[in-house]
Amino acid sequence: MSSGYSSLEEDSEDFFFTARTSFFRRAPQGKLRTGQQDVEKEKETHNYLSKEEIKEKVHKYNLAVTDKLKMTLNSNGIYTGFIKVQMELCKPSQTAGKPAPSSNSCMNTLHISSTNTVGEVIEALLKKFLVTESPTKFALYKRCHREDQVYACKLSDREHPLYLRLVAGPRTDTLSFVLREHEIGEWEAFSLPELQNFLRILDKEEDEQLQNLKERYAAYRHKLEEALSQAWKPG
């Protein structure tokens, strides 16, 4: 199964794209937790990585690569590499003469630099599909898989996707990126297994609230019955 290849030039406002895209079915996923604290920790680490630390991480990353999409470290400390982004555009988007992905999922591979931000990646993907809507209507999500847990969160426009890829390693079942429209409602930004997990949590909370409510009314009924029994006692 082939994947679309795109190149995002570091010092240019233009984006150049080649090859094709392919469509695939989403794999089942596990439980969901929010990963905002995890993201903040990665931001802090990114700010303090030395050139030697980056060199070591790039070396380890390339040793683990199985699809030849390796990273390249330049002498100035900037590195380039590839990220795969799953595009999930749930509704038809405004395009300039070219159909945009709708209900299907489209996987696209981008060649980017460590200096490229989330905002730039979003713009590059929209340009590839000639989507004329504002990039502010879209968001890039990071989804981390750890054992049976799925940590999902929306990335800020200032974050650097290639750094997140470097830290997580090349395996997409450990870290994946998803482009979605975030104007259509907060719940539509999540997959079916994630929504099912929310429902399980809500059911549990509902049962706890009902139990608490029953106990409160039982205690109130007991007090009323005691008061009634006292009132009917002969004086």
Description:
The protein is of the alpha/beta class and 235 residues long. 37% of the residues lie in helices and 23% in strands. It contains five helices and ten strands. Strands 1, 2, 3, 4, 5, 6, 7, 8, 9 and 10 form a ten-stranded mixed sheet that branches. The radius of gyration is 25 Å and the shape is elongated. Mean pLDDT is 76; it is low at 9-45. Residues 203-230 form a coiled coil. Residues 79-184 form the Ras-associating domain. Keywords: Acetylation, Coiled coil, Cytoplasm, Cytoskeleton, Microtubule.
Provide the succession of SSEs: EEEEHHEEEHEEHEH
Distance between the termini: 90 Å
- Classify the beta-strand content into a percent band: 15-25%
Counted beta strands: 10
Q: Helical content, roughly? A: 25-40%
Main sheet: strands, sense, barrel: 10 strands, mixed
Structural class: alpha/beta
> Which value, in Å, is the CA radius of gyration?
25 Å
Low-confidence stretches: 9-45
- Helix tally equals 5
pLDDT averaged over residues: 76
Shape: elongated
Subcellular location: Cytoplasm, Cytoskeleton
InterPro entries: RA_dom, RASSF1-6, SARAH_dom, Ubiquitin-like_domsf
Keywords: Acetylation, Coiled coil, Cytoplasm, Cytoskeleton, Microtubule
Protein name: Ras association domain-containing protein 3
